[in-house]
Amino acid sequence: MFQFKQFTIKQDRCAMKVGTDGVLLGAWTPLDHHPFSILDIGTGTGLIALMLAQRCAAEQIDALEIDPDAFEQAVENFENSPWNDRLFCFHGSLDDFMEELQEEEYDLIVSNPPFYAEIVSSGSENRDRARQNQSLPFEDLMEAAGILLSETGVLALIIPSKEEERVIDLARENKLYPFKITHVQGTPKSPVKRSLLAFSRENSSLNTDSIVIELERHHYTDAYRRLTEDFYLDKK
């Protein structure tokens, strides 16, 4: 169990536990356009959807999860939250979801997608599926966003930085363009490992910056503490 300031995440049935990537995306995602409807693709524990429910007044927050155990856990976490009247989880693949909700549009789509292109085995089939992008290729994710995003909508992702150029190219193919990029370093001396990306349908100017998470082990930077202070119980 992971206790945040305003909600609790149970994760004993989820292959992918609460991690820095999800917290970063949930705290970083731009909300200046005041979304009415939100979709979290591959919600896992439901963390990002819950963070966005805390951060904004969106009336419709849908989440999608293919793994049955993670789906049930997300539903439980949603029901036990203060925003259970705004949160709903669908069980199925992105393809199933697209077929079922062809007319739906979202003002914000978020995803912390699986990112290992190579086949790796951890000994857990569920964990491997959650981490490997065969179950949610970037191509499918971008195509879906191009269809489901409203005219003024935003797509926000966290991905490995080595995939940044390819993902931006895929977005452009679906007429989505980056307007905000934040490069993430674990420590001041470590290489950039993650990219936070925000896209819209407008090909506007691009704002690029960076954030460092820790000065040293468990000693968090002021920037990271400011970004996440509304969620973590404590971060020293």
Topology overview:
Layout: E1 2-3, E2 8-9, H1 20-28, E3 37-41, H2 47-55, E4 60-65, H3 68-79, E5 87-91, H4 94-100, E6 106-111, H5 125-131, H6 138-148, E7 149-160, H7 164-173, E8 177-185, E9 192-200, E10 207-212, E11 214-216, E12 219-220, H8 222-228
Parallel strand pairs: 3-4, 3-6, 4-5, 6-7, 8-10
Antiparallel strand pairs: 1-2, 7-9, 8-9, 11-12
Helix pairs in contact: 1-2
Q: Mind explaining what this structure looks like?
A:
This protein has helices at residues 20-28, 47-55, 68-79, 94-100, 125-131, 138-148, 164-173, 222-228, and strands at 2-3, 8-9, 37-41, 60-65, 87-91, 106-111, 149-160, 177-185, 192-200, 207-212, 214-216, 219-220. By secondary structure, it is of the alpha/beta class. The strands form three sheets. It has an eight-stranded mixed β-sheet with strand order 5-4-3-6-7-9-8-10. A two-stranded antiparallel ribbon has the order 1-2. Helix 2 links the parallel strand 3 (37-41) and strand 4. Helix 1 runs parallel beside helix 2. The model is unreliable at 116-122 and 127-133 (pLDDT under 50).
Can you summarize this structure?
By secondary structure, this protein is an alpha/beta fold. It has helices at residues 20-28, 47-55, 68-79, 94-100, 125-131, 138-148, 164-173, 222-228, and strands at 2-3, 8-9, 37-41, 60-65, 87-91, 106-111, 149-160, 177-185, 192-200, 207-212, 214-216, 219-220.
**Biggest beta sheet attributes:** 8 strands, mixed
Count of helix runs: 8
Q: Strand-and-helix sequence, N→C?
A: EEHEHEHEHEHHEHEEEEEH
- Briefly note the structural class of the backbone: alpha/beta
- Helix residue percentage: 25-40%
Radius of gyration: 17 Å
E-strand count: 12
As a percent range, the share of strand residues is 25-35%
Overall average residue pLDDT: 91
Question: Unreliable stretches, pLDDT < 50, 5 or more residues?
Answer: 116-122, 127-133
Distance between the termini: 20 Å
- Major sheet: order of its strands? 5-4-3-6-7-9-8-10
